[in-house]
Amino acid sequence: MDVELIRKLAGNLNKVVPAEITAADTAQTQDAAISQENLSRLRGYVQLALRQQLKPEELGKSRDPLVRSRLRSIVMRALVELDIPIGSGAAAALVEELADDLLGFGPIEQFFYDPEVTEIKVNRYDLIRVEKHGVERVAEGVRFRDEEHCRDILERMLAPTGRRIDISSPRVNARLFDGSRLIAHISPVAVEGTTITIRRFRQDMTVENLLKRGVLTREVLEFLKAAVKARMNIVICGGTSSGKTTLLNCIASFIPDEESIVTIEDPAELQLQHRNVRRLEAKPPNQEGKGAVTQRDLMVDALRMAPKRIIIGECRAGEAFDMLQAMNTGHLGSMTTIHANSARHGTRRLVNMVQMAGLDLPYEAIIEQIADAVDIFIHVLKDRSGRRRLDHIVEVTGVERTPEGVLNVGLNPLWQYDRSSGKLVWVAEKFTRERIFREEGGWTC
């Protein structure tokens, strides 16, 4: 900035906020320092300047200090050239607001700086809810300007991901810059306008943090570590937002570095603390409805990539059959997650998903496949207080028939949450895999 411009800017910044007014008056004055008309003029000026002065790749870097600095210079020059008087405090806040609005994710940008926020839900452009510490509340005073603003921000979120949403494809799943999972809907499937749900994954959720938060105990942790080292095939089940992915990330850290892993996801969200990982992500079809790459396709590819272990972030459909096949054909120690209300329900969900593969396998053959493939089911949940914890762990003992003659997967409860102590306790009278846990997993409990 030249000297004359700086002098003029200084004059503008002092027009509204004289030194003698009180702090309360200052806040009120600064809040009202810019009218909607001036704000609209300023936004248009800055938006045009950003397009002219920033490269396309820089427009998506709202958190880059250099980009923020350049935006600040543009805003200050705009205030002078448009002759908009404003308080100095309001000017600083305005820079942040415009950065969020023109480069970032608008009113919800602030929540990406808070590591305690785990979910962001846009129910409507004017109704935003946020989950923090397991409790969901309305984000008071936070809203998009209108439906068009909400759609603009959604498009900006999707731009780097290569995914799209429009009238012909009114729903989308995507992975954001920080690994968060986004799912969005627009009209006509979203009745009241654009809806956006963002699941955020804590970057600091290590095994030690799980212990501190009471998700599990040291004894259970040693058991799970032994299960991984003994190359048990593990299925983690639970409801939505119960902590399945977090637990999978943590226990996968026990896999020895010399063992190669292939992960398959849709969209990718695992953040394995492992040095020998090849990550695969499913791809939706293009605008012509072609070019889709499903998790089933990637599962076939993974079998040809010679991994020691395969991890599917979440089994939802026919890929469950391929996962069981992999577990049964040498890829011991593989893992996945599924949605289910208990370990028992998890076995039934697996049956349903295998049936979705369209192979017309008899029910009893599917049950035998599951019993042969899976060693351990771990069930996690989020209780009424919002706390996420392990509820029970069972081992698969083969197949069994109910009194009605129906074939089921045999389950032996090993650990069960005890409400009186608030911990998982060992409940098994016998443990069929005890020897392999001790000899190959190093379990000493």
From TrEMBL:
Listed GO MF terms: ATP hydrolysis activity
Pfam families: T2SSE
The Bacterial type II secretion system protein E domain, residue ranges: 104-376
Top-rank lineage group of the source organism: Bacteria
InterPro entries in alphabetical order: P-loop_NTPase, T2SS/T4SS_dom, T4SS_GSP_E_ATPase
Family membership noted in the UniProt record: Belongs to the GSP E family.
Protein name (database record): CpaF family protein
Species, as recorded: Desulfofundulus salinus
